[in-house]
User: Fold these one by one.
Assistant:
Number 1:
Amino acid sequence: MKVTIDNITLEVEPGTTIMQAARMIGPEVAPPAMCYYEPLKGSGGKCRACLVKVTAGSEKDPRPMPKLVPACITAVQDGMIVENTVNEDVLETRKGIVEFLLLNHPLDCPVCDQAGECHLQDFSFEHGVSSTRTVEERNTFEPTDLGPNIQLNMNRCILCYRCVYTADQITDGRVHGVMHRGDHAEISTYIEKAIDNDFSGNVIDVCPVGALTDKTYRFKSRVWFSKPVDAHCECEKCSGKATIWYKGDEVIRVTGRKNMWGEVTDFICNGCRFDKKKTSDWVIEGPTNVSRHSVISANKYGANLIKPAFPVLQAARDYKQINDDRDRSFLGIQPALPKSKKK
Amino acid sequence: MKILTEHIDVPNIDTIDVFMKHGGYSAVKKAIKKMTPDEVTEEVKKSGLRGRGGAGFPVGMKWSFLAKPEGVPRYLVCNADESEPGTFKDHYLMWKSPHTLIEGMIVSSFALGANTSYIYVRGELMYVINILEKAIQEAYDKGLLGKNILGSGYDLDLFVQPGGGAYICGEETALLESLEGKRGNPRNKPPFPAVKGLWQCPTVVNNVESIAATSWIVNNGGDAYAAIGVGRSTGTKLISASGHIKKPGVYEIPLGITVEDFIYSDEWCGGIRDGHKLKAVVAGGSSVPILPAELILTTAAGEKRLMTYESLSDGGFISGTMLGSGGFVVMDETACIVHNTLTFAKFYHHESCGQCSPCREGTGWMDKVLNRIEHGQGRKEDIDLLVDVAKKIEGNTICPLGDAASWPVAAAIRHFRDEFEWHIEHPELATKPGAVFMRKGASWTK
Ligand SMILES: Cc1cc2nc3c(=O)[nH]c(=O)nc-3n(C[C@H](O)[C@H](O)[C@H](O)COP(=O)(O)O)c2cc1C
Ligand code: SF4
Ligand code: SF4
Ligand code: FES
């Protein structure tokens, strides 16, 4: 089957989704995904971050599709033409999705363990705008513990359902789900029951934000001060293939290995994740391949991998964009400087 | 012309003997003994009957899309979740005349080749559920349900399932999830229920009124049904009329009467309550765009607006609306549009299932902004903000609840922007109890 995405044409197998096809081309044209997680059956279709425009449905029926479609769950047809980064509507809608996802998000990145490897940070940095239009109070929830090792901070949750599908996939009697509706919906393990399953820790890895975090790692380090290393161990329960995170000589965290889309394909067990915190527990394979764009690679593998000019330029550009005409009158403060008059 | 409600006021019409005395279940006999399933479907197609649940999709066509693979059961599911604010017709029909629905269920199930069918009833209507259960038992006792119906070899079991009290479970795929015992989250489509519905088997979901109408069509023929109405709006429609009218209630109208007739004639709503004037109408349940008096009575082109799918949507969303599910809410000049819009927004905020981000976050946002405006804390930019939020939800969600939430807000601002501005510019006036904006030179008549 032939499909064209952002003017690049490729051949794919029948049944391939637009997302999968775009990922074959590369990250430049792959739509962002906040809920889709390839290894999790049933995931996708919810966050709407991946909405794209189909300008021709197929060779046979070349009419455009009336609405934007979610790339992650829409199968390609022979001769389909898709616009992602080249379509204004798509980009504008995506700005809206960022805005919606941040609407009730606490923006507590400075105290969030996920900061630096958070997909919501990446998504809003790449697709959002730098100002906000909301003045409403955010919805809030109390943090809760899911068993001894996992904390749920519902304020940060974007209801992508990835953890729900993970729980579904690893357990028979499902106890982890969603209660209530709408923006008052909550991830829950019904009646506060801990998910006492050997693989429950994987919900931490699949969570795109800092809603589910590892309590054994809590506040130990900012992620960019730690150094990820691929390692494996003999384990009866799982493949034993993991990424271990060092701060100095100390193993402060163990996670599954993530591919370039941030997905873990090999789930690890709780023993490996929470208990094996000594170098001697592991056979080291070598440094984890971290994208040079990632903040995790900062200050680590040699100097100048991130060109200093770039962030400065970006900051300067965004600074100009900051909308300073916002109405602050309700704060009762006079502007410090008189506004310059336009000529 | 009454089709569904002809005998509705006959005492004890909810018992099978009285119902049969008035011709009840003759359609079952005719269909099962004298017709093939395809012939029934053909009559329904000819009738032009359109889905009465809101979208108005032709029923016969929907039936013909049903996949029929060998050895896989098929299901008919009746959508009796009716939770749209302003709509209460299915409730009335099932409560007064449960056998009308059951007869339609048997005829329709026969046409589709379904041997198990369900009626999914809004959970709050427990007493209606009891009425239906009793009526179904009577039908079983008469051999109209169960094995080998009327000696024909056709089997049908009919079950009633109470819902859990969620508007979203009226969306057909959420309904199916709920019926399967899961959380009522709408499914991503495709696949559509006609291919993979209940328990992944081919399924047709139809509204109570759509299904109930099929018995009359079998008895009298599709052509007779199509002879009622105008153009592609055939047959009769139950309208739930409420608000500032003299005679609120459920009316069965032949499609094609004028809106003016419906509001002012004594046969129907009986006019606006004394001493007041018509200001606006929500014509098809809370999800459809509100229209001001002048646009509901006549189209933008100056023609009289009719109670039909086509006429009500004449002018698109710029100057038209939709027939929807027939929840006809009439407002006189004492109604505050901002308050009314807030009420609807609150409802959608409360009922969004929360799966997709535009609807989950957008409905809450619109509710909060409208709430501020209503309480005198609106900002100038809020009106455009609301329009933009509505636009960003519309068309970008999994199910149409997102659209249903954004249309009423967008339409209220489109037609009553000055009223929103007044709330924002004069909070001291707008927040006085009972204060309502009066447009200068408003053409609200009668
Ligand atoms: C949020 C939402 C709520 C709905 N509620 C109902 C309902 O209560 N009753 C109903 O018949 N259809 C309802 N519908 C429409 C159904 O999805 C479906 O289109 C309908 O049951 C099909 O039946 P029909 O073709 O006979 O109209 C709803 C749709 C949405 C999106
Ligand atoms: S807790 Fe995390 S993984 Fe689970 S739904 Fe929320 S954001 Fe998604
Ligand atoms: S549009 Fe709203 S109700 Fe429908 S699936 Fe999305 S969040 Fe749920
Ligand atoms: S990634 Fe496709 S909808 Fe979330």
Number 2:
Amino acid sequence: MRLGYLIREGFRSITTHGFMSFATVAIIVACLIIMGSVSLLSLNIDAMIKDLEDQNEIVVFVDESLSDEAAARDLQRNIEAVDNVASVQFVSRGEAMNSFMSKYDASLMEGIDEEVFRHRFVVHLNDIAHMSQTKADLEAIRGVAKVNAHLDYAKSFVTIRNVVTVVSMVLIVMLVFVSFFIMSNTIKLATFGRREEIAIMKMVGATNSFIRLPFVVEGLVLGIMGGCIAFLATWGLYNLVTGRVVGSITGTLLNVIPFRNVALQVFVVYMAISVLVGVFGGVNAIKNYLKV
Amino acid sequence: MVVMQNVRKVYESSNTVALDNVSLTIEDGEFVFLVGPSGSGKTTLMKLITGEVRPTSGRVVVNDFDMGTIKRRRLPKMRRTLGVVFQDYRLIKDMNVYDNVAFAMRVVGTPNREIRTRVPYILELVGLEGREKRMPGELSGGEQQRVAIARALVNSPRMIVADEPTGNLDPVRSLELMLLLEKINEMGTTVVVVTHEKELVNAFSKRVITIDSGEMTGDTSEGEYYDI
Ligand SMILES: Nc1ncnc2c1ncn2[C@@H]1O[C@H](COP(=O)(O)OP(=O)(O)O)[C@@H](O)[C@H]1O
Ligand SMILES: [Mg+2]
């Protein structure tokens, strides 16, 4: 009975303020979609950077003075000791030549001695944002002749990532605040329409949490509706947009995350935000009535 | 029971001393009229009892709760020992008579079974049997005030406080309502009634507390409402 009463009250209020309820859900949907879009964009850029990190190996060439393989291998420990180095793999001049010959025409190599190739290390980094620093550190090691790294790519992607991260953080904070404000004001309308009832409830000794509950239920229902609609809309939009992108830019390094890989996370985050906005919107709306 | 000791209430917003140096005791089971001219502080005294305002200084104890220091979270518990009646009835317009009374039980979490037996009993007690399905707008003023009294009574409070309950009623309905409150008092509930209607007070032989300009100017048992 009590639970039935509370839920009925929550819904009654939503239908009496139909337009405002609709507007609130619409604003929450819009806010969540914007948040979701920037977050998904940021996730995709991150994934691309990860790809780049995997592809973008730094090659450290060993100085000819260490032509003996064992002496060259000794450098491994020095390289591993450098900050930001994730993995180091030794490639002997013989292996380098074989790999070169398998990629190109073996006839080019006729009569060429493997002495032309240097021993080398293939190095992967933890974070390509610090690639230039790491390159300098590697070059400083005694016995390293040369370091090959592709800095340009890395730099621009990292810049984009940082910008998107900052923008999405600011947007998310702002939009959560906007949703909360709109939610709270809609529910305030409901509390205003029922102020006499609230006053009577207080007079006969209803507890504050009891008085608050229908409004929290109202907020929850509005929030969850918004969250569900926003989830479905994000799903559709994402597939539409990524379909276009992948379709138009062929053969690039753009590797889009499929929606199903992030669907659960998106759903959970949307629900968490909309439930929080609903509950706190309801609590905030009724706050002033519960003081006396 | 109400105990007030040297109570002073100042409204900061209007810089008004609404009550000053009020000391009184109302024992369990008493019937008390609180009289005085408009603006003398009667409603303020009632609000001190219901916990809507707190005393600026002095002590107010109501049904064993110290109203000066009571925690906000304990107010509901305190208010369940009181039944409150106002001049303007304060019924919920879109609920029928039965639901207006049952509402007071629902919001304090009374089981349905108990509500179904208690509400008809109380409605009969206040003389509203057969009116259960009426909406407040379909009732006379006297009947609406009876609904309000039924609502105040339904949770079995220790004390009923009524602020000018007959203010909107004609003399005959006023007398009937006062007789109802007397009957409720005889059944064991303490009753405090605010009024400024002299004839009504003098038709009964009850304790009369008089206040004027925020100060107590009289307290007589089996008293009358004298012109001041
Ligand atoms: N909420 C309030 N804020 C400021 N002043 C008030 C408030 N309520 C009452 N007063 C003032 O306190 C005095 C006593 O008012 P009240 O207790 O309502 O008197 P009564 O009920 O006897 O007519 C009046 O002068 C009134 O203007
Ligand atoms: Mg008054």
